[in-house]
Amino acid sequence: MVFHTPVMVEEVLRYLITDRDGIYVDATTGTGGHSLHILKATSSKAKLICIERDKESLRIAKERLKEFEKRVSFHNSSFTQIAQILQSEQQRHIDGILLDFGLSSFQLEGSGRGFSFMRDEPLDMRMDLRQDLRAYEIVNGYSKEELSRIFKEFGQERYHRKIADIILRERKKEPIKSSKRLSELILKAVPVRYARRRIHPATKVFQAIRIAVNKELENLDKVLSIIPGILKKGSRAVFISYHSLEDRLIKGAIKRWENPCICPPRLERCVCNRSPLFKRLNKKAIRPKAQEIEENPRARSAKLRAVERI
Fold this sequence. Notes:
310 residues, alpha/beta, Rossmann fold, DNA polymerase, domain 1, seven-stranded mixed β-sheet, 14 helices
């Protein structure tokens, strides 16, 4: 099996690990790429808690990390449940948490769920197969207005109305069942000059549908509200985002954590007595090096931000 190549491993380890004997969480384990490197970089006393909502990805991760089974635990769950997971592990606080919001190579190439517009697969796009909503229901059941809004808000797609129009027109003839068919319709909907751009015209629409299916931004917002309560002083959180919507939420949370004051601007001094929760470890987002992008083109859009609890 060809495993997913994790992004910015050196940078993740540098910012995440402060105690080689510590307790860490890989909240987006995937097939275990980052987890493997975290386990190798920590001591035999360290513990890693792996959380992954995709059951098949977690199965692969378990096999991949088998040699470390005595100090790693696995949870087939959403990272929004991290507080409950830590409670079940009898852990109140942790030394660090990693959240990498990218899709794995397995999901794109081996899951058969229609994540990629380059493949001919059923329109599914669920990361957790226990949930009911699939991409099929969105594409074939949502109104033109709802589709247009999803493509615009979650994909920042310029031709959101045109794409919604052609989907509605074509689904009246027969349901749109595959990722390939949806990709073909998107190509028909956009101007020829747009279709010839470096980024495939279906990229943003597929991203938007995937975000809607899996409630990705909603879940990100939830976990950002939980993180301050599970990290102790000196522990760290590392985030890797792949599009501006994710990065905007992360940047907003960091700004609030650094300056939680809620006093009206007219007051000369703070009276709410809210202290900063975190300090940022990198002023600007860290991007992959040119060599990494050359070796792993999917890393090109990654941005890493890290904070430390104070």
